[in-house]
Amino acid sequence: MRNSDGTFAKGNIGKPKGATNKRNCEWYALKDSIVDLHAERFNKILGSLEGKEFCDVYLKVLEYFKPKISRVAYRSENPDPPKQFVIEIKGRNEKGSKTNMK
Question: Mean per-residue pLDDT for 76-97?
Answer without folding.
Answer: 71
